[in-house]
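Q: What does the assembled structure look like for these inputs?
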Amino acid sequence: MTAFRRERADVLAELRALRDADAPTHGGRVLSYVYDSGLAELDELAAEAARLVQPVNGLDPTTFTSVAVMESQVLGFAREIFHGDDEVVGSVTSGGTESCLLAVKGAREAWRAARAGTPRTPRLVAPVTVHAAFQKAAAYFGLALDLVPVDPATGAVSPAAIEERLGDDVALVVVSAPSYPFATLDPVADVAAITAARGIRLHVDACIGGFALAFRSDEEPPLAPWDFRVPGVTTLSADLHKYGYAPKGVSVLLTRGRDLHRRQYFATTKWPGYPVVNPTMTGSKPAGPLAAAWAIIEALGVDGFRDLAGRAARATGVLRDAVEGIEGLRVVGSPVGPLLAVATDEGLPPERRVDPHHWADAARGLGWHLQLQPGLAQDDGAPLPRTTHLTVTPVTERVLDDLVPALRAAADEVRGAPPADGALLLVELAGGPEAAAGLAASAEGLDADGAALLLASFGLLGGNAPDGPEQGAASGALPERLAPVLALVEALPAELAERLLVELLARVVEPVAPSGRS
Ligand SMILES: *Cc1c(COP(=O)(O)O)cnc(C)c1O
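A:
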């Protein structure tokens, strides 16, 4: 008999203790990352479904036929709610990023196939608000990335601005329904008319909003069509682990046309092992998230989804009105779906303004986690404001009576406080303007220890600095106030900020000895 080193109860108790230190995943206190339906029985169903398929390898749906049945039914549900006809097929992926990556990969292969032997680099055109997953896709798959500025007041892109960028090297245009940063619904039909006329493929990224927007109630103002009702839309991504309420690890990528879909696959028979046919980026893969999503779809059906989407929409409306009613803050543009971004009301004198990042920090002090988004310089010189993001879920409706007063109190706490000035902070941290300039130029050639020392000098890497007193994951916790951190991210050259953030995240997972070792 195999001897266990530790008792089951002991191991699980330790894990529970670790989980207690996490940000709360339920109850609506965290307004990003987590999507709480507020239905405990739905979570239990999902967990039980995932457990049933725990040993299954989703790699081979001909060996594990349950995977094929669940996947084709999940895709059938998605195709129906996103108004695809029988030319629309798809794949279940591990998440929004993988759906986006595959959409780009498929478009690149199709673009190349039509231009056999071309040495040219394909280009991806999208509004600057497009999810970072497309920056990743361009980097991974070797496409030039062409980001189109948006109107800083509304977050909206003009179809004409996209049209200006189009050419024969464009493999894919991407629009969002809606965008993550500002919840803007891009002009899908107008862009589709332009791309279709040129034979350019168009992806709609409905990763965050898809499973909410598809279930809008008749009481809400109707939206312009944004899914497969629009003829020029060739692919669409929507995440089941967001407003599909499934555990992390499941999304769908729908594709118009079987030939384009097949270009997302990877297959090889040129090795001495089993023939490889992968629809997605992974090889062996869990079936748990798929089974959970399938069970949730079976249990909720269209009516259940509509009810939950309605709760999130109502809560979003209340929050939007509440924020608009807070002196010094404004909601950016016309958010669509259960999310919104909040910026400073620049129409007011500085002493009456509320910096959205100080506001988020103050809200965190009151137990509410909002997400800070940095300001961004655009190519055309029109800067996008720094904002704070709120993702609203069905459970939010139940906590509005606590949340709204907290948002007001947080604003009262920081009204008039000047925004954190990253450039100034950098000079302070570096010990003078020249040192700061030198530091800003230092991204190139920065090695892991150099980056860690820099982070430590910024006060962002306590015990995990090289030769620090304590090496361990727990010391990777976030600083109490994030506004100065985001201000630094804004002020540093992007390459340096990115390198430092990589270091920060990597230091959090420095290997340490397992627990309970005797
Ligand atoms: C969340 C999101 C993604 C990426 O999805 P992940 O599931 O985090 O990988 C892509 N696009 C949009 C609009 C999103 O909100």
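The radius of gyration is 24 Å.
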